[in-house]
Write a structure and sequence with these properties.
The structure holds three protein chains of three kinds. By secondary structure, chain B is largely without helices or strands. Chain C is elongated. The chains are: A alpha+beta, B little secondary structure, C mainly alpha. Chains A and C meet through helix 1 of A and helix 5, helix 7, helix 10, helix 12 and helix 13 of C. Chain B: This is NOT2/NOT3/NOT5 C-terminal domain-containing protein. Chain B: Belongs to the CNOT2/3/5 family.
Chain lengths: 148, 47, 512
């Protein structure tokens, strides 16, 4: 029984300003840290691509099912995000180790020849993010002070 | 009749809390892991 | 007072110098390295020599960022350029706040933070008056969200001031509430519902100390939306803000139902009565520790439920809302002595505030009166070691008042009165129980079919909107249509139109 109620003058002014703001709305990425690579702008992908976020895609288990290359991509191109954090955890579960000086991921290729308090030495596989590929490195010394 | 509140892009049947991945009041879908700032070890900030 | 000669040049030089330091990537891994060098420079330029130069510097720097925003807004990839500059400036603010004064001296840090927030608020409100519909929210949005995220980083010094930081931002967002800065309303909703802000103010601050502050921000939002929502047709800009509000409320319903339970009363005071679904959203939550029995359970014995006797928390002092004090005094004396009878005949005049159709009554007073009388009734019944039932709620000063309101008010007033009762039909608790009995009793004892029809309308309009529906509403309506004592199906209004009859039958079928 209340019916409609006329907008008062002050509400009309408020509406004009709200309406003007409506035509340059904030986007979700305005509230996110700047992404050096991948801004948070949804891109229209073909309809047959998964349009919804895959279930449980924000869990380590999901990331563990991804290939190392995918994990490396997430790690290097989505830095400072939860995705990078989950990718790093998944890589560690696949016995990759992050070298904080070279900023690359290493994995033992065989039992190291030398192990002591400071370092271990032997043949490793590492992921070279500049050449974007896995490389073998023999006789590499992995100093534990660089183990993240 | 109001809105179909299930169609606002929130997973209301989720057992976990929604707010940690809330994409914002004007987002049609939750924020994905790559959208969420995270305090990662500073060594990971390779830029 | 204008800046001293040369000040702006120095301030601009310093600001750009800092941005260059910050953008030099090696610092992003060790922000402190460049900061200590820069602080020495600020000192050398006299910026840190007291309150005034520092205030001038922040006002200049903030204005510089906003001017940069307006200048570059239409450039391609504008936001990356604008944001990298603003983010650098905000990083400087955050470092100054964090490192000002001794690490244990929080007041220096907070004075500085509040000063800076106040400067940004002042510039925003002034800018809005200058630019009116050309006002750009994005620069201010970026400053606030980035500063909040910087000061929310996991850090022992910041943890120590987290409640004060949240309080400072709540105060700022209240000053920038949509009614004060309508051009900023979309950013404002983004800011108060940012996942980090929600997590901090509702989950991480101990003893729910952030809940009251957050309830005030939501009240600011509802008050702003109210005049636009009062008319069913929503213009696009309103609908966008309204949908955003619903999303935020859904997150609260899902993650913090107890918060909505505690503040439902204050929210219903400011949500327009025709905003049925949003109000249902506010009334539907129940404590996560509670298991709700299916309202459609045949022969559900509501008064046998474990939780039905619990007193729900109402975090607003509704008794204090009963004004003027003379009216409250008369009310209390009537409740006590069930006299003088003249009190009943004057009730309506205390509630009516105008003769304009649609806004004749003081809704918050109506809501407070109903809840106050109801809680007094529950206490009175309890004092006799009884619980609310159709027998224990009658022949009392409390029911005199409710029956008088049902009979004496006009259609508009009775609609608001019945709404005040229906707003208490929530999850199993003593208020739901009492008010469910109360509205059914008013239906059963009504001396005119108009009252019965209006009670039905008030319940029905809450049921036919999309979900969610409060548990107490469902069990009350089911009782009304099931219990033959109310002769519900014999009323003409139940069969007034085929679709209405079908609707009742479909509800009845789902009950059986």
């Amino acid at each position: 029984p209340l019916g409609t109620s006329k907008l008062q003058k002050e509400h009309q002014i408020q509406f004009q300003r709200m309406e003007a703001a409506y035509y340059h709305l904030p986007t979700p990425s305005d509230s996110e840290r700047l992404r050096p690579y991948l801004q948070r702008q949804p891109v229209q992908t073909p309809a047959h691509f998964p349009q919804q976020q895959l279930p449980h895609s924000d869990t380590v288990e999901f990331f563990q099912r991804l290939s190392p290359e995918t994990l490396f991509f997430v790690f290097y191109y989505m830095e400072g995000t939860k995705a990078q954090y989950l990718a790093a955890k998944a890589l560690k579960k696949q016995s990759w180790r992050f070298h904080t000086k070279y900023m690359m991921w290493f994995q033992r290729h065989e039992e190291p020849k030398v192990i002591n308090e400071e370092y271990e030495q032997g043949t490793y596989i590492y992921f070279d993010y500049e050449k974007w590929g896995q490389r073998k490195k023999e006789g590499f010394t992995f100093e534990y002070k660089y183990l993240e | 009749m109001g809105q179909d509140l299930m169609a606002l892009g929130l997973n209301l049947t989720a057992s976990d809390n929604l707010y940690p991945s809330f994409g914002g009041p004007f987002a049609d879908a939750p924020a994905r892991p790559q959208d969420i700032d995270y305090s990662v070890p500073p060594e990971y900030l390779i830029n | 007072v204008d800046d001293p000669p040369g000040f702006q040049e120095r301030a601009e030089y310093l600001l750009k110098d800092w941005v260059a330091i910050h953008l030099n990537t090696s610092n992003s891994r060790d922000p402190l390295k460049g900061f200590s060098v820069f602080v020495a420079k600020m000192n050398m330029h006299g910026i840190l020599k007291g309150d005034e130069p520092l205030t001038r510097f922040f006002r200049f720097a903030t204005q510089y960022c906003i001017d940069l925003t307006y200048r570059n807004m239409n450039e391609p990839a504008a936001k990356t350029k604008i944001f990298s500059f603003i983010d650098a400036y905000v990083r400087l603010i955050a470092l100054l706040v964090k490192h000002s004064g001794e690490s244990g001296n929080t007041s220096t840090k907070l004075n500085l933070l509040n000063k800076i927030l106040g400067i940004v608020v002042g510039l925003l409100l002034q800018d809005q008056e200058i630019h009116t519909t050309a006002f750009q929210q994005v620069g201010y949005h970026r400053i606030f969200v980035t500063l909040f995220l910087e000061l929310s980083a996991s850090d022992p010094v910041l943890e120590n001031i987290s409640l004060s930081v949240i309080t400072a931002f709540c105060h700022t967002f209240h000053l920038l509430r949509p009614a004060a800065a309508p051009g900023f309303c979309y950013s404002w909703l983004e800011l108060i519902s940012h996942r980090v802000f929600l997590g901090r103010i509702l989950a991480m601050i101990p003893q729910q100390k952030g809940w009251y502050m957050y309830s005030q921000l939501l009240i600011d939002l509802f008050k702003y939306l109210a005049p636009f929502l009062r008319n069913a047709e929503l213009a696009k800009p309103v609908h966008h803000l309204y949908k955003g509000t619903l999303r935020v409320l859904l997150v609260l319903l899902h993650d913090f139902p107890e918060f909505l339970c505690d503040y439902h009363f204050a929210f219903c005071d400011v949500i327009p009565p025709n905003c049925i679904q949003m109000r249902n959203l506010i009334l539907s939550p129940y404590p996560r520790s509670m298991r709700l029995p299916d309202p459609f359970t045949p022969n559900l014995k509501v008064d046998m439920l474990n939780d039905i006797g619990g007193s729900p928390r109402v975090s607003i002092n509704y008794a204090a809302a009963i004004q003027p004090a003379s009216f409250k005094k008369d009310l209390d004396s009537y409740l006590k002595a069930r006299a003088p009878v003249t009190f009943l005949s004057e009730l309506r005049s205390n509630l009516q505030i105008s003769n304009d159709v649609g806004s004749r009554y003081n809704i918050p007073l109506m809501n407070a009166l109903v809840l106050y009388v109801g809680t007094q009734a529950i206490a009175h019944i309890r004092s006799k070691n009884l619980g609310p039932t159709m027998a224990t709620i009658v022949h009392s000063a409390h029911m005199d008042i409710f029956q008088n309101l049902a009979v004496d008010l006009d259609t508009e007033g009775r609609y608001l009165f019945l709404n005040a009762i229906a707003n208490q039909l929530r999850y199993p608790n003593s208020h739901t129980h009492y008010f469910s009995c109360c509205i059914l009793y008013l239906f059963g004892e009504a001396n005119s079919e108009a009252i019965q029809e209006q009670i039905t309308r008030v319940l029905l309009e809450r049921l036919i909107v999309n979900r969610p529906h409060p548990w107490g509403l469902l069990i009350t309506f089911i009782e009304l249509i099931k219990n033959p004592v109310y002769k519900f199906w014999e009323h003409d209004f139940v069969h007034c139109a085929p679709e209405i009859a079908r609707l009742f039958e479909s509800v009845a079928k789902s009950c059986m």
